[in-house]
Amino acid sequence: MKQKKWPEAWHEVTPGCMVFTPGSASTYKTGSWRAQRPIWENKQCIKCGICYMFCPEGCISETTEGFFEANLDYCKGCGICAHECWPQAIAMIEEEV
Fold first, then answer.
1. What pLDDT, in 10s, does the model give residues 22-75?
2. Does 3 fall in a domain?
3. Is residue 89 within 8 Å of residue 41, measured between CB atoms?
4. pTM flag (> 0.85)
5. What is the DSSP code (8-state) at residue 36?
6. 7 and 14 Cβ atoms separated by less than 8 Å
7. What is the distance between the alpha carbons of residues 9 and 83, in angstroms, rounded to a whole number?
8. Which CATH number covers residue 86?
9. Burial class (CB in 10 A: 0-12, 13-18, 19+), 61
10. Is 62 within a domain?
């Protein structure tokens, strides 16, 4: 079966916006529009993983040392990780242009 290309104009959109090729959200780097980004202070981090569990984008991962960091290609800067971090090891700072 031949795969159909993505529509380029509004009149090429299929009824019901059917998807003809499987894809993955991981191919779309969505972090480019954030206004703030999280910065971890590992001296304050207790390695509890609360930031990992509460991240709605699933972009936080554990490092080899047991600390956590966000993949900024996908982080949208919502600040939930910083809000939920009760040791206050995460600070949200303004994104630089």
1. 666 677 788 888 999 999 999 999 999 999 999 999 999 999 999 999 999 999
2. no
3. yes
4. no
5. E
6. yes
7. 41
8. 3.30.70.20
9. exposed
10. yes
